[in-house]
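Let's practice the habit of predicting before peeking. Look at the sequence and jot down your guess about where helices and strands might fall. Then scroll down.
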Amino acid sequence: MAMMMNGWMFGWMWVWPVLVLVSLVLLVVGVVWLAQGRSPGTLVPASSGRRILDERFARGEIDDEEYRRRRAELR
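Done guessing? Here is the structure:
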């Protein structure tokens, strides 16, 4: 029985290194994704035109009418 158990266990021992490798790759991809200023589920970079427009409006560089006109053009 002990011999059978060891043979079964050694047959599955390759799974753990693969799981560790996959986990490390996912961790690196997640860190790179966050470092680039992206949130999961979006493909638009953080420096998109809409974000820049929002920042300019928040700083008071453009008025409400200009903001709405440019926002409509970005769609």
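How did you do? The helical segments are 2-12, 15-35, 49-59, 64-74.
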